[in-house]
TrEMBL record, chain A:
This is Pyridoxal 5'-phosphate synthase subunit PdxS. D-glyceraldehyde 3-phosphate binds at residue 164. Homohexamer and homododecamer. In the presence of PdxT, forms a dodecamer of heterodimers. Its EC number is 4.3.3.6. It comes from the Bacteria. Signal peptide: none annotated. Keywords: Lyase, Pyridoxal phosphate, Schiff base. It comes from Murimonas intestini.
TrEMBL record, chain B:
It catalyses: L-glutamine + H2O = L-glutamate + NH4(+); aldehydo-D-ribose 5-phosphate + D-glyceraldehyde 3-phosphate + L-glutamine = pyridoxal 5'-phosphate + L-glutamate + phosphate + 3 H2O + H(+). Keywords: Glutamine amidotransferase, Hydrolase, Lyase, Pyridoxal phosphate. InterPro entries: Class_I_gatase-like (IPR029062), PdxT/SNO (IPR002161), PdxT/SNO_CS (IPR021196). Catalyzes the hydrolysis of glutamine to glutamate and ammonia as part of the biosynthesis of pyridoxal 5'-phosphate. The resulting ammonia molecule is channeled to the active site of PdxS. Signal peptide: none annotated. The gene is pdxT. This is Pyridoxal 5'-phosphate synthase subunit PdxT. Belongs to the glutaminase PdxT/SNO family. GO terms for molecular function: glutaminase activity; pyridoxal 5'-phosphate synthase (glutamine hydrolysing) activity. GO terms for biological process: L-glutamine catabolic process; pyridoxal phosphate biosynthetic process; pyridoxine metabolic process. Its EC number is 4.3.3.6, 3.5.1.2. Pathway: Cofactor biosynthesis; pyridoxal 5'-phosphate biosynthesis.
Length: 291, 198
């Protein structure tokens, strides 16, 4: 991928800022999401909560199903491939997906190597639990980062942990003397140039969203106040009692995340939230996939 | 500085609004974000509609009761500058969609005219009153038809990508994601002239 293409891909992520990206499994859900104000949709066969419940190996979705969703909406369509599965990524590029999520939600295809994303024209978003992971994914060519959180749980605790960790590590790099950055790069196992960028700018060189466990408008507002530039909502919407209404409330909460009065109104009468599983109750920690 | 003494409201419901704010601040203008109705109580001399997803911004503008008051301001002459999605919000007609948002700019736009993200591109081209401008087109629209009284400011590959109609400036591309402040400086000139005329 040339530098110009990489810039355009980072810029598409900039256009998504302040927005909500929603998981959808059918064209009908995609239309509901767009109508509710989603800034993009993630097309997948099963939402994370169901992947978690079903167990077994989960893979890239049927390209035909993804095309159906591409035809149903005008907003960008994203889709997931397995960590390290560059052939799945090639297929998604062939159907002109707008963004590929190399995602720990699916079963990893490679337990050592991530995809060399610099070889693709199409942009990639990747999950990260800390600054080291984020910068490693960026050096591999990711043009957008999201927290891993813990997908399919409706439990926000891990996304909070990952976002705080990243912010703390960014603050630490900013406070360092220039001559300490070389050692920091070594500890983080990332290229020096990226460490230097964070030191100078106090932020990642790409857009950073929150993901994994967002279920309510308050969850979304919490992540925005912690510094997320937008929010992915997976199972939280279509596993809830009134998806359209909840989706719309979360979209508005991301825009007015600093206004508790509006958040109070938005949180009223949303029907049942997704059931949710606590961290201690789950078997598979998806966030531990791909470091 | 170009922007001294000028206050610009930036629609900040979704999209790349902080990029516009940075550009305007570099040019010395005062900037504030419009996220809800109360924000409109502040006086401002110009309005920016940023890039992002037009369906989202349209939805939020009506849901947050921003659309009608902003539309009234545009009709009564408030200088407005829309980029990409912002241009779609201003357009009178969208050729491949039934939606109309402000509908104050007499043009027909085609949404996602260059296709999906793989069709996004960067180029450099001349824009009237500004000069050469670096242009990033991200899943961009272009103008298929411009009504009488619309000045065409830029064309790329034969398609209209920049226009001005009275107090309204609209471009398909994203000057806010580059380092070039030329288009924003032109918008501030528009504001300055409108202030001198009143």
């Amino acid at each position: 991928m040339d530098q110009e293409r990489y810039k355009l891909n980072k810029q598409l992520a900039q256009m998504l800022k302040g927005g909500v990206i929603m998981d959808v499994t059918t064209p009908e859900q995609a239309r509901i999401a767009q109508e509710a104000g989603a800034c993009a949709v993630m097309a997948l066969e099963r939402i994370p909560a169901d992947i978690r419940a079903a167990g077994g190996v989960s893979r890239m979705s049927d390209p035909g199903m993804i095309r159906g969703i591409q035809e149903a909406v005008t907003i960008p369509v994203m889709a997931k491939c397995r960590i390290g599965h560059f052939a799945e990524a090639q297929i998604l590029e062939a159907i002109e997906i707008d963004y590929i999520d190399e995602s720990e939600v699916l079963s990893p295809a490679d337990d050592v190597y991530h995809i060399d994303k610099t070889r693709f024209k199409v942009p990639f978003v990747c999950g990260a639990k800390d600054l080291g992971e984020a910068l490693r994914r960026i050096s591999e060519g990711a043009s957008m980062i999201r927290t891993k959180g813990e997908p399919g749980t409706g439990d926000i605790v891990q996304a909070v942990r990952h976002m705080r960790k990243m912010n703390q590590e960014i603050a630490r790099l900013v406070s360092m003397r220039g001559d300490e950055l070389f050692q920091a790069a070594k500890e983080l196992q990332v290229p020096y140039e990226l460490v230097q960028y964070v030191h100078e700018n106090g932020s990642l060189p790409v857009v950073n969203f929150a993901a994994g466990g967002v279920a309510t408008p308050a969850d979304a507002a919490l992540m925005m106040q912690l510094g997320a530039e937008g929010v992915f909502v997976g199972s939280g919407i279509f596993k809830s009692g009134d998806p359209a209404r909840r989706a719309e409330a979360i979209v508005k909460a991301v825009t007015n995340y600093q206004d508790p009065h509006m958040l109070a109104r938005l949180s009223e009468n949303l029907g049942e939230a997704m059931v949710g599983i606590n961290e201690q109750e789950i078997q598979v920690l998806m966030a531990e996939r791909g470091k | 500085m170009k922007g001294a003494g000028i206050t610009v409201g930036v629609l900040a419901v979704q999209g790349a609004f902080t990029e516009h704010e940075r550009m305007l601040k570099r040019l010395g203008a005062e900037v504030f974000e419009i996220r809800q109705k109360q924000d409109l109580q502040r006086p401002f001399d110009g309005l920016i509609l940023p890039g992002g997803e037009s369906t989202v911004m349209g939805k939020l503008m009506s849901g947050l009761e921003l659309q009608e008051p902003l539309k009234e301001k545009i009709i009564s002459g408030l200088p407005v500058f829309g980029t990409c999605a912002g241009m779609i919000l201003l357009a009178e007609k969208i050729s491949n969609d039934e939606a109309v948002y402000f509908g104050t700019l007499p043009v027909t736009v085609r949404r996602n005219a260059y296709g999906r993200q793989l069709g996004s591109f960067h180029t450099e081209c001349r824009m009237a009153h500004v000069g050469r401008v670096p242009m990033s087109f991200i899943r961009a629209p272009y103008i298929e038809d411009a009504g009488p009284g619309t000045e065409i400011l830029a064309r790329v590959e034969g398609h209209i990508v920049g226009v001005r109609y009275q107090n309204q400036l609209a471009v398909s591309f994203h000057p806010e994601v580059t380092d070039d402040t030329g288009v924003h400086a032109y918008f501030l000139d528009m504001i300055r002239k409108s202030l001198n005329n009143t």
